[in-house]
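#onboarding

Welcome to the new folks! Below is a worked example of what a typical request in this channel looks like: someone posts a single protein sequence, and someone else replies with the predicted structure as tokens. Don't worry about understanding the tokens yet, we'll cover that in week two.

Example request:
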Amino acid sequence: MVERTGYLERIRSVFRVHPVAALLGPRQCGKTTLAGMLAEGEASTTFDLESPVARRQLTAPMVALARLKGLVIIDEIQRRPELYEILRVLVDRPDNAARFLVLGSASPQLVKGTSESLAGRVGFVDLSGFTLGEVGADERDRLWSRGGFPRSFLAADDVASGDWREAFVRTFLERDIPQLGITIPSETLRRFWTMVAHYHGQVWNAAEFARSLGASENTARRYLDILAGAYMVRVLPPWFENLKKRQLKAPKIYIRDSGILHALLQCGSLEAVFGHPKLGASWEGFALEHVLSTVNTRDAYYWATHGGAELDLLVLASGKRFGFEFKYADAPPLTRSMHVALQDLRLDHLWVLYPGSAIYPLHERVTAMPLDAVKNAMEIPAS
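Example response:
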């Protein structure tokens, strides 16, 4: 069992402010297990909306939920989005004695009604698969190769892990997406998803995707929104400064889980990743997700100019600007692009994350370091 104390504390922090906590993340990332950990030692009631029994119990949801006290867990709530409006009524009662933890595999943008119905009453916790902080630095390469989905990471060997990920992709396309009311042929969406894998870490170009699909740009954008809303793809927005430079305005796209990326690229082991042309991009995405899970902020961007200067990740935290570059190299040097980013973006510090183990300065405001040093370097409180 991998301890997930950081996420448990985030949920408890939400409940200190809101009567409803929404735990959101991709299917099979451990939401149900985490909810079970939270419920240990206290009175709780669970409804799994994938179960016919639970769906029958909630045939009259107002009656069924109004009498409950303590922690109420509603799993896979995207299957019954009308429950959000009912929860609003319940938590607004003066004598409400329940806290509601809702688990969902789709973002509020993909399932209409969450934020509108529960505005001011719900706090969100985004859950990913296992993180480096949870499994330990010694397991970095296995986490990178297999990804963070618990059953993939904990599989007996690489073959079993690869089989699980292939089955996950197929089930996601053939069952999970249709359950959201989205009618797209699974092979079409898989083809698009594979294209995203080959563009992992690059700037989004709707026209190029549309040409490859034989579809319109609006269709390509819709496919991207679907995968992003189901937590399969990260769309990293660009940052703009009032500079006398032309800056890129399209987002970058990444497959969020490195194991799913490798499955789509047909890399069945870490050795296969080492020999793949997307090695550097794979490391970039893996390191990016580690930083974002560590910092726990939505103020994250990339920055690039048409002149060639760029920054892989800009994070705004505690009123400061932190930059990150991700380099798959033994000893990454200071580059001209880093100098430009330091000056133009007025960075408080820039970190270069590489697969080595040493921490060393490249400049008074630039430091090269391994992934597991991020938390201490930024003096981020435990989470």
